[in-house]
Design brief:
By secondary structure, the chain is of the alpha+beta class. The chain has seven domains: about 1-185, Rossmann fold (3-Layer(aba) Sandwich), CATH 3.40.50; about 190-300, Translation factors (Elongation Factor Tu (Ef-tu), domain 3); about 310-385, Elongation Factor G (Translational Gtpase), domain 3 (Alpha-Beta Plaits, 2-Layer Sandwich), CATH 3.30.70.870; about 390-520, Ribosomal Protein S5, domain 2 (2-Layer Sandwich); about 525-605, Alpha-Beta Plaits, CATH 3.30.70.240; about 620-760 and about 975-989, ATPase, nucleotide binding domain (Nucleotidyltransferase, domain 5), CATH 3.30.420.40; about 785-960, Hexokinase, domain 1. Strands 15-14-20-11-12-19-16-17 form an eight-stranded antiparallel beta sheet. A hairpin with a 4-residue loop joins strand 33 (about 555-560) and strand 34 (about 565-570). Helix 3 packs across helix 4 and helix 19 crosses helix 29. The protein is elongated, with a radius of gyration of 37 Å. This is Elongation factor EF-G. Its main location: mitochondrion. One of its GO terms (biological process) is glycolytic process. GO terms for molecular function: ATP binding; D-glucose binding; glucokinase activity; GTP binding; GTPase activity; translation elongation factor activity.
């Protein structure tokens, strides 16, 4: 509420003086620049110390404050106050002080009153130039002039007048109300500014003029029967009328007011309009707290409410569908009413996550859902919202390069990561207060900076580089928390005219992050809380010992009374769980405590390892396991360490058989890419990886399942030789597992591994070539569902995945079907077959010869020779041929012929497998010719649909779903290795 006030009365207890809540209120008043007067209350109570309270206002809060009154009597003898400005005594008598009169100052208080007035006048003379001139002429400054000076300096927030009284007995309240009128500003005395969003956020002055366009702030929402949801609105400019429509500037949604209500205590009165400075309640609006509203004539916004980032989260789930509806309704209401209460969905488990300012904060809302909405909900264990960052500047220089025929993927990025300074972080927190949640912290608290000045990387790729980095920042490798307080500076890179793409540069950014992050001395940030505890003085030692055990820092203590002591400390939030029980035990129920957020600070190094392990365990609990997945190629050796766990599922049968398709959640813990040439063997690569991976220790190694895809045939978990990795000889998965102490190593042919990646595909990663009949709509009694993968690259890879319907058992197999003989269809193709035999020096032409990447330049030579062209002038590589598809006629013919033959092969696969799970096309050849493939009447479609002579056979093809896998920078081989390792690991639990 302080955000929308022109002025405020700050109430201080004369007994407790400045307490923890007083400090909080003072901080909020300072933040929102609210002028104030101070009322020291409870002067009628035993032990009241108004002068001690005044002293603490100066020392603890640093306020420039002075008494404008002195008390008449003390404690139970308190009868009124003396106004030192006007030298008048106010006596309060009768029931609750309703009768009061003004008299001369009692003789015994004259000296005290004059001394207090002199102190006040001298202080004001130092602050106010006008009063200083009068003071130099006559020290006995007139009351009116002194009041005007107090008003000027109060509005300027340089001074706080202090008044005294007892609110309970209604003594001193009337002079307090007079002081509100005398010293606090009216709406016209304050200056407010906003931001014109139609002019790129240009600052504009807000004037309290009823004739101007309406501007107001909805600062609170509350359900209040019988009026329904009330939205409290402060009007800053223009007027608000019953039935008027207003625009929520956050959503640009226009809504109509039904009623305007003026509230006074528990009374409500309907009004027809409200002007500048008015605070009214509106019905009919559905807006969040802190939103600026206008009449639509202007597009202005104001600074939002200060809303600290939530520090604790927990999952909340309903027991039934009916409870789910009730819970959703309750959460929507609470989120609207309380900006510090955040509701989100875990992207992995799809659980509803609520976040807030503390354990108690969230448990209160959970209990309200049960009590007010009669909904049966359960909550998970509270989770502290950690963050991750780096301590040192670290450079990155990463090249993403993949080439296996056809258009490749190429992108190089260089630059550095560096931690943000404290001031930069504070500026961001101030600018985006109320917008930062555990799910989006990395979005706001990281800065991407493009320092490229030339054309090393085309501008259209920069956004994808940033996107690649930001996806990595959402879940850091240490605890899975957001990576924050980081600047990413892009300084340079390289691109390729043909092979570079948005996907390639996004993958390059992700690779750069994985490569460099650990080099920046990564660390965990934890929320630290300001804690204030009031305990019996004789228990202070025990309390401080308890705080020390919780790794807190005691920052001060003071005696409140002869019996009680206030202890202040800063304690990590993760160590405050269960503190209420401990305090009750220490003090036998006589202690009190409160805490609020202080800051995110670096966690001590000795705690970080335990937190990492706890984070790993918390993802899946007992149903979790560590896996290593590998994708090995002739150029690079890619390895990943992941934590996998069974996701919660009410339909889970509890079976531990591998044949059960696991519903899983994965968390990437560490990733590395090594040049294959620098790794003498797979054993050496895994040894290096396991020694670098921060989450692995010797005790955990024996439970790790590792699956690696290799470009070679695998027999009995052994590979004798790998054609494009000649120095890797006699690779034995079982022997390596035993030597390294790993639980299991499984070697897969790289295309078999890619087939395991089929279940990992998302619909967003697929481009439909033929819709067919999706398996979820097919009426089939087949005992198994088959999916086929085909990929023209350096060669033509083929494989298939079989899922047993009864047991859900999955098996993947690589195929050598691409080595079947090519069957010419016409005179030209007979001529082509002869050319290929001679060109390649082979006795038999197979399908792979005419569809893989090397086929494109060979087919170009064939058509170039027929045209009598100089073969030396023709493109020599597959990317060059594909790149000239639209400009070079012989390149067009070459690509079309290769795709026509590939289409025939797709048709034959449809007939061979009847793959109700569909056919999936991957590979750089398909990626580079995608547009021509998808075109209506393309050569591939011709080969697919028109090569069959029987309508029944053609019907089988048309019923088969066929999709192109949209390259996304993540290899299907890696995804398949992850899937296979996950199934093996969870089956071992």
């Amino acid at each position: 509420s302080l955000r929308v006030l022109d002025g405020a009365v700050m109430v201080v207890c004369a007994i407790g003086c400045v307490q923890s809540q007083t400090v909080t209120v003072d901080r909020q008043m300072q933040r929102y620049e609210v002028p104030r007067i101070i009322f020291i209350n409870k002067l009628d109570r035993y032990g009241s110390e108004p002068y001690t309270a005044l002293k603490q206002l100066k020392t603890k809060l640093g306020l420039c404050a002075a008494l404008t009154q002195v008390p008449l009597g003390a404690e139970d003898k308190f009868a009124g106050v003396v106004d030192v400005v006007r030298r008048e005594a106010h006596h309060f008598e009768g029931y609750k002080g309703l009768s009061w009169n003004t008299n001369e100052v009692p003789a015994k208080l004259v000296e005290q009153v004059e001394e207090t007035r002199k102190t006040l006048v001298e202080l004001m003379a130092d602050l106010d130039d006008d009063l200083a001139e009068s003071f130099l002429v006559d020290e006995n400054v007139p009351a009116d002039e002194l009041e005007r000076a107090i008003r000027r300096q109060t509005i300027a927030r340089k001074f706080c007048p202090v008044l005294l009284g007892s609110a309970y007995k209604n003594k001193g309240v009337q002079p307090l109300l007079d002081a509100v009128c005398k010293y606090l500003p009216s709406p016209g005395d304050r200056t407010y500014s906003g931001y014109d969003q139609s002019r790129n956020g240009e600052r504009v002055e807000i004037t309290p003029d009823e004739k101007k366009p309406f501007l107001g702030m909805a600062f609170k929402s509350q359900d209040l029967p019988p009026n329904g949801t009330l939205t409290y609105m402060r009007v800053y400019q223009g007027s608000l009328k019953k039935g008027q429509s207003v625009v929520d500037t956050k959503t640009n949604k226009r809504q109509s007011l039904k009623k305007l209500l003026r509230l006074h205590s528990s009374e409500t009165r309907e009004v027809t309009s409200a002007g500048p400075g008015d605070i009214v309640a509106c019905t009919g609006l559905d807006v969040f707290s802190g939103v600026t509203c206008t009449d639509g004539k202007i597009n202005w916004t104001m600074s939002p409410l200060h809303i600290p980032a939530p520090v604790v989260s927990l999952s909340i789930s309903p027991a039934s569908r009916e409870d789910s509806t009730k819970m959703a309704k309750a959460l929507a209401r609470f989120k609207r009413e309380d900006p510090t209460f955040i509701v989100s969905t875990d992207p992995g488990t799809k659980e509803t996550i609520v976040s807030g300012m503390g354990e108690l904060h969230l448990f209160i809302y959970a209990e309200r859902i049960r009590r007010e909405y009669n909904a049966n909900v359960t909550t998970g264990e509270p989770r502290v919202n950690f963050r991750e960052t780096i301590n040192e500047r670290v450079p990155f220089d990463y090249t993403h390069k993949r080439q296996s025929g056809g258009r490749g993927q190429y992108g190089k990025v260089t630059g550095y990561f560096e931690p943000l300074s404290y001031d930069e972080v504070q500026e961001i927190l101030t600018k985006h207060q109320g917008e930062i949640t555990p799910m989006n912290a990395s979005k706001y608290l990281t800065i991407f900076q493009n320092n490229i000045r030339g054309n090393e990387i085309p501008k259209n790729f920069i956004a994808y580089i940033e996107k690649g980095f930001r996806e990595c920042l959402e879940e850091g490798p240490l605890t899975g928390s957001a990576v924050c307080n980081l600047r990413i500076v892009l300084e340079g890179g390289k691109h390729h005219e043909v092979d570079s793409s948005e996907v390639a540069f996004k993958a390059a950014a992700q690779g750069a992050f994985e490569q460099a992050f650990y080099g920046g001395s990564p660390t965990i940030l934890q929320p630290v809380m300001n804690v204030e505890v009031t305990v019996p003085t004789d228990k202070t030692g025990s309390l401080m010992s308890g705080i020390t055990v919780r790794k807190g820092l005691v920052t001060g203590s003071e005696a409140l009374t002869d019996l009680d002591t206030l202890v202040r400390a800063k304690v990590p939030l993760r160590n405050m769980f269960g503190f209420t029980t401990e305090l009750r035990s220490i003090t036998q129920g006589h202690g009190e405590w409160a805490m609020d957020f202080h800051a995110y600070e670096e966690m001590p190094a000795d705690d970080q390892e335990s937190v990492k392990k706890q984070s790993i365990e918390s993802v899946g609990g007992p149903d979790s396991a560590l896996i290593i997945a590998g994708d090995i190629g002739g150029t690079n050796c890619r390895l990943r360490l992941l934590l996998v766990s069974k996701a919660a599922d009410k339909k889970d049968t509890g079976s531990d058989s591998e044949s059960e398709e696991p519903k899983t959640k994965t968390q990437l813990l560490y990733a590395a890419k090594y040049p294959t040439a620098s790794c003498p063997s797979l054993e050496e690569a895994l040894t290096r990886f396991t020694s670098e991976a921060p989450a692995l220790d010797e005790a955990e190694m024996s439970n790790v399942v590792c699956v690696v895809g290799l470009p070679s045939d695998v027999k009995n978990n052994k590979v004798a030789r790998i054609a494009n990795i000649p120095h890797w000889v006699d690779t034995d998965g079982d022997a390596i597992a035993e030597k390294l102490g790993l639980g299991k190593i499984v070697l897969l042919n790289d295309f078999e591994s890619a087939c395991w990646g089929i279940p990992m595909l998302d619909e967003s990663e697929l481009i439909c070539l033929n819709s067919g009949i999706p398996i979820n709509k097919a009426r089939t009694s087949a005992p198994a569902i088959t999916s086929v993968l085909i990929g023209p690259g350096t060669g033509l890879g083929e494989g298939y995945l079989v899922t047993a319907r009864a047991t859900n058992h999955v098996s993947a197999h690589a195929s050598e079907g691409a080595w079947v003989s090519f069957a010419p269809q016409d005179e030209e193709e007979f001529e082509l077959m002869k050319f290929v035999k001679k060109d390649l020096g082979v006795p038999r032409v197979v399908v792979e010869h005419l569809t893989a990447g090397p086929a494109l330049p060979m087919l170009t030579r064939f058509y170039g020779q027929k045209e009598g062209m100089d073969l030396a002038d023709l493109p020599k590589t597959a990317p060059e041929v594909a790149g000239k598809y639209a400009t070079c006629p012989v390149c067009t013919k070459a690509c079309d012929k290769a795709m026509e033959i590939l289409g025939r092969e797709l048709a034959f696969l449809c007939l061979k497998f009847k793959p109700q799970g569909g056919i999936f096309l991957i590979g750089n050849v398909v990626d580079s010719l995608r547009d021509s493939i998808l075109a209506e009447g393309s050569s591939l479609r011709k080969g697919l649909f028109h090569s069959l002579y029987h309508p029944i056979l053609e019907g089988i093809v048309r019923d088969t779903p066929i999709n192109i896998v949209n390259a996304n920078g993540v290899s299907m081989g890696m995804e398949g290795a992850i899937n296979r390792a996950t199934r093996l690991a969870l089956a071992r639990l």
